[in-house]
Amino acid sequence: MENYLTNDETSVTGRELVKKLKAKRLVTEMTQKTLSEKTGISVYKLSLIENGERSLTIDEAAMIGQALGVVVKWYLEVE
User: Fold this and answer.
1) Do 12 and 4 contact (CB within 8 A), yes or no?
2) 75 and 10 in contact (C-beta within 8 Å)?
3) Which of 3, 44, 51, 52 makes an SS bond possible with 14, Cβ 3.0 to 4.6 Å?
4) What mean pLDDT comes out for the span 68-73?
5) CA 29, CA 1: separation in Å to the nearest integer?
6) What's the distance, Cα to Cα, between the start and end of the chain in Å?
């Protein structure tokens, strides 16, 4: 069963969110190591999350978003 983040206008699956965060990290040319240093989330966990082998918690999403300079609304925008 897919996890969803929702608001009144859109819904985004957990996997879509992870894809958006990874794409943003790559566009900003940030390594997993740098992201790890900024968030306190280990490189190992970041790798598992980005590869769909571990779920992303709300707290982790917020920390990653802050490190990447995005706000919660960005997560919920459907492309």
Assistant:
1) yes
2) no
3) 3
4) 77
5) 32
6) 22
Task: Read off the amino acid at residue 63.
Answer: M
Residue 42 confidence (pLDDT) = 97
Are 45 and 51 in contact, with CB atoms under 8 Å apart?
no
Whole-number Å distance between alpha carbons of 78 and 63? 21
Backbone φ, ψ for residue 46 (5° rounding): -60, -40
Alpha carbon distance 40, 63 (integer Å): 9
- 53 vs 14: CA distance, rounded Å: 12
Residues 33, 62: Cα–Cα separation, whole Å? 18
Average pLDDT over residues 53-60: 84
**Model confidence over 5-48: pLDDT tens digits?**
444 444 456 788 888 889 999 999 999 999 999 999 999 999 99
